[in-house]
Every structure is written in C-alpha cells, then in structure tokens.
Amino acid sequence: MREDDRNRRRDKAFRILEALSDIDEELPARSEQSQRADASAKVRQIPLRKYKSAAAVLALLAVGTSVYLLGTGMPKRSDGSQAALDIASLGERIEEKDTSPAAGAAPQENIPSAAQNGGTWDLAEEQSKEREEIEGVEAIEELDSANRAEEDSLWEGLPERESAREGAQEDVPTQNTMQDATQGAMQSAIQSATQNAAQSAGLDAYVPETLPDGYRFVSADSGTAPPDGHALALSCVNEAESKRIDLWITDETASLQTVPAEEVTEDTFRADGTVAVLYEDTGVAVRFEGNAEPEVLYRVFTAIRP
Amino acid sequence: MNDTEILDLYWARDPRAISESQFCYGRYCHSIAFHILRDREDSDECVNDTWLRAWNSIPPGRPNRLAIFLGTITRNLSLDRLKKRRAAKRGHGEMELALDELAECVPTARSTEDEVETAELSRMIDRFLHTLPGRECSVFLRRYWYVEEYAEIAERYHMKLNTVKTSLFRTRVKLKKFLEQEGIVL
Lengths: 306, 186
Known about the structure:
The structure holds two protein chains of two kinds. Chain A is of the alpha+beta class.
C-alpha cells in the first residue's frame, strides 16, 4: 500500500478513535472493573482444569482395571473395602491373564461387553457419565467465559455471590406491554441468585415485578456488602435503544445518599447523579444506575413493591 | 474523598477540587495520555489541561462517573495533540499500529454518499458496542479507548496474547460489517 493511501486510511481510522470518546461512559467504566471479576474467575478455572485431567486419568485407570477384572472373572464389586485387596492381587493376576483371550484386547473393545454383562461396575455407563461431566465442565467454562464480563461495578466488595446471567433467561417471553420479569426462567434465575445472603435478608422482595417495554434482565447476582450487609444486583437492558439499568439492592446503606421511597417522584430521577431509594420501614435501599430515561427509571421504581 | 465530595468542591468553585482530582485521578488520566502520546511531558500537559477543562465544565455539568468524565477529557486532549503531531510528522509506535488496525474497520466508500458526522459515528459505534459480549467489548475498548498494548490487555483479563489478538480481529471485522450495513462512510 502506498504511503499516501495508508495515511488516508489512518486518518479515517482516527475518526473512529475520536468517535469512541463519545460512547456510553458505562462501557469504558465496565472495562476497568472486569479485571477483578476475571481474576476471581481465573481462580475458579484452575480446579476445573485439574478435575478434567484427573477425570481423564481416572477413566483410563478404570478402563484398564475393569478390562483385567472382567477378563479374569473376578467378582465385580464397587465395595471400597475390597479395593486394597483387589489392587494387591492385581500383579499376580496380570501374569495369569496373559494367557486369557481378553488380555490383548483394547480397553474400549471391552466396554460394550461390560455393559451387556449387567455387572455392578457397569463401566460403559460410568464412562458415559464421566464424558458428560467433562463436557459439562467445558460447556460451563465456555458459558462462564462468555458471560463473565457482564459483571460490573455493582460488585464492588461482594466477594461471595450467586450468579444467574443472560443464558438463563432466553425463555423469558417478550410482550408488547410491560414484561413480566419474574416469571419463568428469569424467576428461577433470580431465585438462584438470591438463595444465600440476599434472600435471607429479604432483598428479593425488591426485585421489580415488571420491566418497561423492550427491557429484559441480563444478570442477577447476590453477595455480601461490607461490612455486614447483603446485596443483590440486577441488570436489565433494552438492546434496541442501547439502554441499560442496573439495580443494586442492599441493606448496607451507610455509604449511600438515599432518598426516602415516599418522597420519590419522576423528577427525582431527573436530577444529575445516581439515585438511591431508601425503604425506611425495612432499611433496604435500591440504587438505580444506567442510561435509561428518568421516566423509565421511575417506572422501574414503581414496579418495586407496587 | 469520594466523587460526590469532589464534585461539590467544583460546584462550590473551591480550588481544592483540582488538587483532589489530581490526587484521585492523576495517575489514571496520565496513563490514558501516555498510552496515546508516549511522551511524558506531553502527557503531563494534557493532564494539567484536563483539570482546567473540568473546572470550566463543572458546573453546570455533574458527571455520573467522574473518572470516566476526566479520562474522556484527557483522551480528547491527547488525541488533539496527537493529531497535530501527526500532521507535522507521521509517527510510529503503538498508536500508529492501533490506527492501522482500526483502518480495517473503515467501510468501503461510495462516492455519492457524504461523510458521516462524528456524532452520528459515535452513536453507531455505541450501538455496535452494546451488541458485543461484555468481555469482547471490554477488550476492544482497552485497545482503542485506552490504547493499551496487547500484553497489558492479556494480563488484565488473564487471557493469552493470541486470544486478545483474535478477539480484536473478530471485533474489527464485525465493526466494519456493521458500519457498512448502516451505510456509514468515513
């Protein structure tokens, strides 16, 4: 490419670079915060990989051992009390097995016969389960990886959490009127997310009953809010309009500038800054963040404990 | 001091707003400027100009996220400075590399169409970014908003270097396709 062409293209690329300055500020902010979420995710991944390797090794051992045992006609048992004895006698039996017809067979070739035998070890079934588990772990890792970056600033200081994200809500029906946000898959997702701290603290009562048109939940997480509180974070988006609403429901309100729920009007959401609504009867606060219009935020507010 | 308190200082026209901003966000803003300019002195000047521009913008402004607000000012000032520098002498380094990559996103021009306004382009890119999975979006922004190097991004997200490169490549292809579908001409 000639230098002039290259520079012309760079100039155009520069326009994209400049245009990026005016994107939704939540996006660069979120890219800052993903670091912590991913760090914790990394810790989670290590044992998964170990399990996969361990499962593979165990599967090979199981296959090898069962091939030998099936061939010798040794009593099939899953009883752990005999395991040491079985292993101790393995060396002797290997010599005996050298003359048996099954000795040279590949382990895989013996799997169907093991299943047909209907023995208590039922190796084929066990291997199938192991394969499913390994595949399941891989699928979870992929899903986890794809959705991990959805975690955002709401999780500041929430080390323990239950999560339910986008993949769990594909069945949520879209309606022309207000969406029923707590039915079906999302309901179970939210319930899952609120099982621990949030549910025991009663925070799940502050999940909006409905969402405005076009909005759907994309994540629900629960955890602890230092020093002694609990928190539940929900995010919903309107993809068509590139709008997002984040709700942080917590009983740890000391650090929040709150407005009593009784005093909240649509104008409350027109003021600059984040709005945190305090339900004085329970001491629970709901913080509203995002780029949705004030009237939309107010509708979400009215859908909480209507 | 938290963001609300710093903003209150700006609104009260209290000069401590600048020193507090410098204290809380000086390193952050300097990092943004330095990734773009790769020059300590220029970066210092951009950061100093950032506080002045913030002082002139608040009030009436009251940003929701002070860090991103200040970072965006620094970024714009740095890009302006870089543009002048590039006009004087075409440069090299990470920034030019990032620009070469982004040039892949430039949609094919058709002579009958006018260039899209910057505001419209921003709106389109914003829409595009919201369609991306969170991680992919973040990786893209670390590279083209913060102009970070691949290795920094890989370290930040605990990714392999090649995974970062692949992710960025795919996103650029998607962006080009998106802009072309939207009829954007640069």
